[in-house]
Structures are given as structure tokens and as C-alpha cells.
Amino acid sequence: MLEVNHIAKSFKGNPVLTDVSLQVKAGQLIHISGANGSGKSTLFKIIAKLLEPDHGSVRIGKDDMIGALIENPGFLEFESMMTNLKFLANLNNRFDQSYTLQLVKQFGLNPTNRQAISKYSVGMRQKVGIIQAVMEHQSLILLDEPTRGLDKASIEQFIALIDALISDGKSVMIASHDDVPGLMYDLALRLEDGRLTQ
């Protein structure tokens, strides 16, 4: 599913990741904790092939597809939620309308809302970011601070979604400064001083 081998990354001479290795198998739920600036987002960007490591390698299965919510999700700000979701999924010719609508309704959003996404609250944007990370039936899902801006009911919906994804054999990695209560992690790691520890 995923092999991260001896990843290192520096920015302007400042090391962020020094020697990070990790294996993730199908159906696993992994939590990575760490302080702000510890390199969690950088690690996820490298896994998602959005950033090149200075050293090391990332290998995923040839049929595996990555979905990611990393930092603040970027959208077509003056388009509606459904236009955004359809646009993103169509980049890979993988728009599953029925599943996308199911996710939208699960998070209490209105699929017929024509309001521009620029008008959405932080929590609403976060929900759309989570939806786009899973709506194409991605097999490896990277979620960076996924519950930021979510209220209690939305966090419960998020937990139910993660449980369903794991039951379906998907692998999910969550990075946050603390864990999300209610989730049963297969592995809990901490990123500190550029290294992962249990």
C-alpha cells in the first residue's frame, strides 16, 4: 500500500524531516501527532507527490490512488460546492455523483446550494475538503488537521465516515496536534525533531 523510506527534507537549510520511514497496509488507520511546524504537512505533501524529498523514497501500490486534505483546501472560490467537487473529480474522470451526494448529505450540506464557496464558513470548507479527499474512492487518504473548524455533530459524522472507509479496506492517515477521540488507531506515531516515534 505505502512505503516511506528514509525521507529527509529541509527548507533554506533548516531540516524539517531528517529520517522518516513508515509502512501502511490496506485497512489501517494511522495517527501522526506533533506540534505545529513539526513537519506533518510536509510529510503528507511528499507522500501525495506534491513535494519532492531531498533524500529517500515513497512507494505506493500501482493501483492505489491518494486522496488528500492538506492545510487549507484550495477551491474555485466563486463557484458552488457541487461545481467544485465535480471539477476536481473530473480531472481524473472519476466523478461518482451518487457517492458524492451521499457524502454531502452525510455532512449536512445542501447539494442544491448555488452559493459561492468563498462565502462558506471555515467548518463548511473543511467538510468539502474532507469530501473531495474520499469521493473518488481513493485507497489511501491523507487528512491534515481534518476536524479543524468542525462542531461536535460534524466530528461525529467524520468519525462515522472514517469507520466506514476502514471497514471498506481503505487506509487513512490523520495528522493532528492531538488525536480525534472516538477513533481506534492501528498505529499512533509522533513526529518530533524530524523523526517518527511510537
UniProtKB/TrEMBL annotation:
<dbReference type="GO" id="GO:0005524">
    <property type="term" value="F:ATP binding"/>
</dbReference>
<dbReference type="InterPro" id="IPR003439">
    <property type="entry name" value="ABC_transporter-like_ATP-bd"/>
</dbReference>
<protein>
    <submittedName>
        <fullName>ABC transporter ATP-binding protein</fullName>
    </submittedName>
</protein>
<dbReference type="InterPro" id="IPR051782">
    <property type="entry name" value="ABC_Transporter_VariousFunc"/>
</dbReference>
<keyword id="KW-0067">ATP-binding</keyword>
<dbReference type="Pfam" id="PF00005">
    <property type="entry name" value="ABC_tran"/>
</dbReference>
<dbReference type="InterPro" id="IPR027417">
    <property type="entry name" value="P-loop_NTPase"/>
</dbReference>
<dbReference type="InterPro" id="IPR017871">
    <property type="entry name" value="ABC_transporter-like_CS"/>
</dbReference>
<feature type="domain" description="ABC transporter">
    <location>
        <begin position="2"/>
        <end position="198"/>
    </location>
</feature>
<keyword id="KW-0547">Nucleotide-binding</keyword>
<dbReference type="GO" id="GO:0016887">
    <property type="term" value="F:ATP hydrolysis activity"/>
</dbReference>
<keyword id="KW-0813">Transport</keyword>
<dbReference type="InterPro" id="IPR003593">
    <property type="entry name" value="AAA+_ATPase"/>
</dbReference>
